[in-house]
Fold each of these.
Amino acid sequence: MPSRTYDFVIAANRLPVDRVVRDDGTEEWQTSPGGLVTAMESVMRGRSAAWVGWAGIPDETPEPFTDDELLLVPVPLSLDEVTSYYEGYSNDSLWPIYHDVIVPATFRRSWAAAYEQVNERFAQQCAEVAAEGATVWVHDYQLQLVPALLRELRPDVRIGWFNHIPFPPVELFGQLPMRREILTGLLGADFLGFQRPADAENFLRACRRLLGARTKGDVVDVPHTDRRVRAASVPISIDAGGLRELAMSEPVQERAREIREQLGNPRTVLLGVDRLDYTKGIRHRLKAFEELLRDGRLSADDVCLVQVASPSRERVEAYRELREQVERTVGSVNGAYSPIGHTTVTYLHRSFPREEMAALYVAADVMLVTPLRDGMNLVAKEYVTCHDGPGALVLSEFTGAAGQLRQAFMTNPHDIGGLKQAIMDAIETPEKERARRMKALRNQVAKNDVQHWAETYLAALRAAPEKPAPTES
Ligand code: ADQ
């Protein structure tokens, strides 16, 4: 691998590819479809770019390889590190703290040590590939120590970090035994991007309270240095143009009609699409739906719910428990209400291709997005982009998306009575009004797509610690 030659380097926990074994036993790398890859395509064009991340296979280190001009640099993780750095520290210590402690966080010193070690490895790989004066864009909560570690190795590079999940209030963040190391790690960057303005404010407050740092507006003076770091919100989005084109295509439209038929042509199709995660409010949604059936406000003769729940973090205990609870509730709702020949709740615990997801969005009259806490929530943006006509989005106030999708039916999912009412409003609001709201939502996402997000972020990174000139953002 040629060292120090890439002007644009991305570091993320996972590489944007998965290894698949073909029927004949040979192997190939397949690009995993995701917003980040699409966003990066637009900003990487014409630059020599490298992506540093784990290849998803423990105890193996594939050699760096090139995929469509992008250099992919696998970072090795042992099986033990997958358990301690990834499932442990990232997903059982940080994830609960950053999501309002919906489930209690677990702290283990051995997990924290593994987190430090793996972050060190990522920083070294970035330092190895980045050209003189390159831009390095670090992603997410798994890599919060990388900015400072990398700055130490390579003071010449420009470093940005983006947080895909919320940044918690200092009262919760302060519980972390490694709280000071994390803040100091992040302050190694030139620019820190967050989903919501409130996340950036939480970070600035944590710097004042826990490091005694001075802040002015959205800029932190890094203690004991002359460096200044800007922290601001740059909300992520989706590839609206690409997804809209797919949703409007004849095969997807046809598939959407077929899905409605297979569901028994009910008057109203409700849809939920989530990773099976306790932050997503799936239990609250099912409870509200069940009560609406029980109260007789909805009838299983003319309404059904499709819940897509992609498998997630199945080795973490809280996720195993959630799966059991959700599956039990789905079973009991179906036992009580499903008419012969159809199920009231269609539960799909697996992943689907993009075409099938788009068809589901087209088919659904009401989209239920009810997280208890969510950095952004791309599903809400995908639905309003795909669905034409009088659909409706029920959206939790506790998502980053709620700051932008103002025409949704807003709800506090903890308030089951309020959630039931929001679902009823979404179903009963006259068609014309629903169509008007959906159009406004769709336009909002079309104007603020993922390409716009990446460009805005990189303009802020170039200008940091100053704000970018208005034409640049
Ligand atoms: P996630 O928590 O994974 O992302 P989200 O933003 O909703 O949440 O994105 C999920 C993506 O997976 C969507 O693109 C969706 O279409 C897709 N998906 C879900 N279930 C699927 C299935 N069964 N089959 C195929 N695709 C499926 C984190 C943060 C979010 C933040 C994003 C991006 O938690 O708050 O919005 O990163 O920053």
Amino acid sequence: MTEVPNPAQMTQDPVAGLEGVVAATTSLSDVDGQNGVLVLRGRTIEDLAGKVSFEDAVAHLWQGLGVAEARSVKYAFGEARIAAFAVVPLLESAPDSLSVYERMQLGLAALPLNRGLPEAIAIGGALPVFLAAAHRIASGTRSLAPDSTLPVATDLLRMLTGETPPEAHARALDRYLVTILDHGLNASTFTARVIGSTQSDMKQAVLGAMGALSGPLHGGAPGPVLDMIDAIGSPDNADDWITGALERKERLMGFGHRIYRTRDPRADVLKAGLKLLGPDNPKVKLAEEIELAALAALKRAKPYRPLDTNVEFYTAVLLDAIGIDRALFTPLFATGRTPGWCAHVLEQQQTGKLIRPASHYVGPMPSESEPLT
Ligand code: ACO
């Protein structure tokens, strides 16, 4: 009998992760993994996050895509939040078993489009409303209507908690949303571009991208980062805990990256945001100690592979510091990344080209197969 390789067991399969493959031409963002530089349409992430609002960063990214030239993104997102709130009763009547993320996906699936708002605005504006409503449904409290006059970060915190957020918290969340707005051809953005390339609608592309984002190797990491910090508990335990995890061949969440061979610049942008929240948070100090221990342990365990801190580590610490429940970390990531996904879909659709790569067949040939009896 012919030995047939099983692709699932081919860990050395050179094409399995499409590593190094260039699969799109884009003006949206560039990730320089050697030097740790992230550029969004000509501006570094340090030049945007903490300096311009989420809405202005989105307007910057969307230039030339025909979405928001004529109107302010802040105003249009406000309108979109109001429109999306009409879908919230459906979310309230959905089964209790749905996670916050699944309820957001349900809301998106049910969101009426073609009501005068460009799809990217209708969808980008809706997700904060669905996130907040899904959280309040899960915690047994009444969903709150959006206030279209507020910036996205402020209104999202208000809809989550029912209170006007401290200015520092709104600024920290705004910085986070800008930091994660777009990031080259990551797994979820690639998914969005593939779906968009079939001329499917924007909703389907964002739903698919949300699916890709949710896994722990991508946008599902920050909740487990916080679990790790809590499990370690004190700097004295960090080394033993981390060494044990690496000996068990576990991955340390919040470390390592496909593209960066140095520090993910977004980690420092978020860490700078943490410093602005005040110097006295003991969990931030603990996280810094854990980070140092993890980097040293990773260097010992994998000397052949540069592994550094990625965006998810300080995402977890920052969002926790402003009181966000860890169950909302991935939903928030999707909320901030959605305008980036939409931009990529529009850019891909401008090419008019279907994404349809080839695969390398390693199964048996018909001449090798037994005749059917
Ligand atoms: N902890 C321990 N070891 C790691 C880690 C980690 N976080 N990341 C990579 N490695 C090791 C692997 O075990 C492997 O070692 P080996 O060659 O001895 O088997 C080597 O580094 C290469 O790993 P790959 O999986 O081939 O590298 P890849 O580029 O595909 O991985 C990834 C990138 C998936 C992000 C990885 O670093 C990881 O799993 N990190 C932890 C999860 C995480 O933080 N995800 C968020 C990423 S950022 C984002 O998506 C927004």
